[in-house]
UniProtKB/TrEMBL annotation:
The chain crosses the membrane at residues 12-37, 66-90, 118-146, 166-188, 200-219, 239-256. Keywords: Membrane, Transmembrane, Transmembrane helix. It comes from Streptococcus caledonicus. It comes from the Bacteria. This is DUF2705 domain-containing protein.
């Protein structure tokens, strides 16, 4: 059973709306400054209000500021976007079972193919959002990356390969894309066991949000699930700290796989 990639995108308006909300939040400071900064305010009587406003607007378009905003809001919006995929996953999987008259070897191959395709959708949405940010900053002349050298540990072997702000920027984007992909596959495995997209989405969000809030109190940050999304917000990273956030996912996946085999 072949599936057109565009057919995977159900509830297109909802994904568009969430993407739009994401972008508006990233540019919130710029928008509020543009709309509400009063160049004729009494406090600016002895200053050039227009020049000050323009400078503030330019600083709000700084690529480093915008990337910080992206990193902050992605921890809230990406899990929601991923959770919505569950409904697409269940619908298409159920449709295949009906067409193929039950579960068989083709079903499991289809399910793997489906999960990989669906997991790529939020990755694509994230890349579009980052791409929009990059294009706008290039047009505004504010694409000047800085501060990325603190991302990696001084002793990390990765420094030999990731030796510029631009390469580190691309690397950080790849890390988030991997996190989105892994989290999507993890959600699909929960659905395979629970067979309920709503309950699975709630369980996943409790794992990634509530579980992380609790674990942050007594575990190193690099062992907490949310760190998969937020890893680029930390510094002094090495290969070990980049991989460790996925330990709980591997344990959870193994447990879910065991329960699935028993169903």
């Amino acid at each position: 059973m072949k599936i057109n990639f565009l057919n995977l995108v159900r509830h297109k308006f909802l994904y568009f709306l969430l993407g739009l909300v994401f972008i508006l939040l990233v540019y919130r400071d710029y928008i509020t400054t543009y709309l509400f900064f009063d160049v004729n305010a009494p406090d600016l009587a002895n200053f050039d209000g227009t020049a000050i406003k323009n400078e503030l607007l330019r600083s709000n378009l700084d690529i480093n500021v915008l990337l910080f905003n992206v990193g902050f809001y992605q921890s809230f919006l990406l899990p929601i976007i991923i959770s919505l995929l569950g409904f697409n996953y269940v619908t298409l999987k159920t449709k295949f079972i009906k067409l193929s008259i039950g579960k068989n070897d083709c079903y499991f191959k289809f399910r793997k193919h489906l999960s990989w395709q669906l997991a790529s959708l939020p990755v694509l949405l994230y890349l579009i959002i980052v791409g929009i940010v990059v294009i706008i900053t290039m047009q505004a002349g504010t694409f000047q990356l800085s501060g990325k050298e603190h991302l990696l540990s001084e002793t990390s072997v990765l420094r030999y390969f990731l030796n510029s702000d631009l390469i580190l920027f691309i690397f950080s984007i790849i890390l988030v894309c991997v996190a989105i992909f892994v989290n999507s596959l993890f959600l699909f495995k929960i659905i395979d066991v629970l067979q309920n997209p709503i309950k699975s989405a709630i369980d996943y969000l409790m794992f990634i949000w509530l579980g992380s809030i609790i674990l942050y109190h007594f575990m190193p940050f690099y062992l907490v699930p949310m760190t998969t999304f937020m890893i680029t917000s930390y510094g002094n990273l090495d290969i070990q700290t980049l991989l460790l956030p996925y330990c709980l996912y591997m344990c959870g996946y193994a447990i879910l796989k065991k329960y699935e085999d028993e169903i």
